[in-house]
Amino acid sequence: MDFFTFVQLGDASVRMAIPLLLACLAGLFSERAGIFDIGLEGKMLAAAFLAAAVSFTTGSVWVGLLAGIAISVTLSLIHGIASITFRGNQLISGVAINFFAAGLTVVIAQGWFAQGGRTPSLPRDARFGSVDFPGALTRVRDKMQASPGMQFYSEFISGHSILVYLGLLTVPLSWWILYRTRFGLRLRAVGEAPEAVDTAGISVVRLRFSAVIIAGILCGIAGAYLSTAVQAGFTKDMTANRGFIALAALIFAKWRPWYALGACLLFGLFFAIDNRFQNIQLQVIWIMVLLIGVSVLMTSWAARKEKIDLWVLGGLSAVLTLVALLAWRGAVTDEIGAMAALFETVKVPSQLIQSLPYLFVVIVLAGFVGKAIPPRAGGQPYVKER
Amino acid sequence: MDGMPKWADVVLVPVISLLLAAIISVIVFMAIGQNPWEAIKLMAYGAVGTSDFLGYTLFYATNFIFTGLCVAVAFHASLFNIGGEGQVLLGGLGAAIVCIFIPWPHWTLALVAGSAAAALFGALWVVIPAYLQARRGSHIVITTIMFNFMASGLLIFMLAGPLKPAGTMQVATGIFPEATHLPSLHDLAGVFGLDLFGRSPVNISIFLALAACVGVWALIWHTRLGFEIRALGRSESAAKYAGISAVNITMIALLISGGLAGMMAVNNTMGINSPQLVDNAAGGAGFIGIAVALMGRNHPVGIVIAALLFGALYQGGAELSAATSVQVQIVVVIQALVIMFTGALDEMVRSPIRKIFLRMDRSSAAGE
Question: pTM of the entire structure?
Answer without folding.
Answer: 0.89
